[in-house]
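Hi there,

I know you've been waiting on this one. I reran it after we fixed the sequence typo, so this is the corrected version. Both the input and the resulting structure follow.
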Amino acid sequence: MSAILSKVLQSMNIVVFHRLEDKTFQLLNSPPPWLEHFCGHQASVNEVVPVEGIFPFLDCFLEEAEEFWESKVSTPHRSGPWVDFTPHGEEIPLEAIALWEDDKPLLVLQDLGEEYYNEVVRLQGFRDGALNKESLEKEILSQTKQIRIREEEIAMKLLSAAGHRDHETAEHVRRIGLYAEVIAEALNWDKAATADIRIAAPMHDIGKIGIPDRVLLKPGKLTEEEFEEMKEHAAIGADMLSGTNIPLLNTASEIAMCHHEKWDGTGYPKGLSGKEIPESARITTIVDVYDALVHRRVYKEASSEETALKIMGQMVGKHFDPELYQVFLDNLDQIRNIKETYVEPSS
């Protein structure tokens, strides 16, 4: 090694060894001062230095280095940084590199100096930033969850007030939301929209609060005129829930307006058809009919699930979106579990 290159390496706090056949190490350049702290003397060029035993970490790396040298791969093999202490307690950050160059196994040791500590500070800054970001994200998730809980409680209270004028039960409206959530998840809706429909779908009939008792509570069949009055609940509910920038209420408003629309365009209030009907409303329509069929009401007995599915099957392509109805069937086990969990009080 030339004297100039030796001096350059010394100035860079780098020391280079040639690993000899007897697995000892011959010094190839003028060593930097820090090596003396570990060797106990000022080593000279071409001196065989007892590297093993000086650095415990290096001893472990040399086992890897021997395999590397045997393979004669040209790509350097690095140990990664470690910190050692001189006999005087001075801290020195080091890194070892095994090389195969000019058919020679070489070992390079470098004092990483201030750059190492600067990198540690930089990485610690990234780590602290990541931890702060993670902590903030957790806090946001926690607050979002609490907001969702409050939104759901408010919605259920509103529906409870409306339920005093109707035959719907708290269990029915809760099931509708949970059924709709299952379908939305199966359709890969994002988490926020899925949570929205869980809370919004139960509000589909909230407009019935604006229907007169003589129509809403009439035990028998409605006249044509009364049915026209009843149909107004869709627009009333949509109007009650509209006029905000809150995604949840916007979803609830479109469901309230469109849950009586039919796939073939024969529904109300607008006579929408196919995918003109918002997907949220098409989902709610299917799960609402299912729940109404399989549960007892004051005006009818409950149908078996088998009977309900036969009836619903005849409505596909007319009342229901065929693709969404298939998603409903594909997730029927989850739907059924919800039905069996949130049972009517009389059950």
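Quick highlight: The longest strand covers residues 91-101.

Best,
R. S.
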